[in-house]
Amino acid sequence: MQWGMQNRLSRIISPKTGHCVMLAMDHGYFGNIPGTLKCFDDLKPLFEYADALMLTRGMLRSCVSAEIDKPIVLRVSAGASMLKELSNEEINVAIDDAIRLNVSAITCSIFVGSEYEKQTIMNLSKLINFGEQYGIPVLAVTAVGREMARDARYLGMASRLAAEMGTHFVKTYYCENFEEVIRVTPIPVVIAGGKKIPERDALQMAKNAINEGAVGVDMGRNIFLSDSPIGMIKAVREIVHNNASVDEAYEIYKQGPKGL
Ligand code: 5RP
Description:
Strand order of the largest sheet: 1-2-3-6-7-8-9-10
Distance between the termini: 39 Å
Shape: globular
Radius of gyration: 17 Å
Low-confidence stretches: none
Bound molecules: ribulose-5-phosphate
CATH architecture: Alpha-Beta Barrel
CATH superfamily: Aldolase class I
């Protein structure tokens, strides 16, 4: 890997632990603004506990201080709201602007098996070409079309496909037989949190994913929709970086302040 590419990736995935906790806050790009994300400013107290922030250009400019010392993973795909066919996306941010924003990685979704599958795979390929040109790593999000099962066969296929395109790391969902997803994907894998579930279940999912080979999480709703978002992100960190047990992490969550 070129120096710049390696340096940017090392800001996201800790070279010390080999792991990362990314805070996903890009949901609004397709019109999904759950709970506290409605008032984005409320999320600021969480930033210090994240290794990287994943968000859109608009929210970065409007809601995040340019003085922040956190790597930014910038979503650069858009095109459809949740009211329409989600896979109908294109790249919506010029690479020059991503460079001006000093981002550490760029990301788009691929919707394997969906109506606009080819378009999204070509979006990813375009991003990888930009990334290679300027030394910026690319995260591929294996988004799941409405009709797709979130199983190891499908998620493994989508993650492998992203790796074959040349993406640098991939985000997918945790599923049964997750080792199979890892086995077929020769690049670092982070898991999305998915819909809000009880805190202990979300911690167990993070623990299983790390045990089974994920390098980390890119978690949103299971952190910021928790009754203790700070407790929850601290607990997830302990699992991801310090190999804490689910019981230990759950205690950390319980001791967290209520609300933000
Ligand atoms: C949507 C995304 C989101 O960042 C991701 O799914 C959000 O994380 P969570 O599921 O943990 O709320 O990439 O395509």
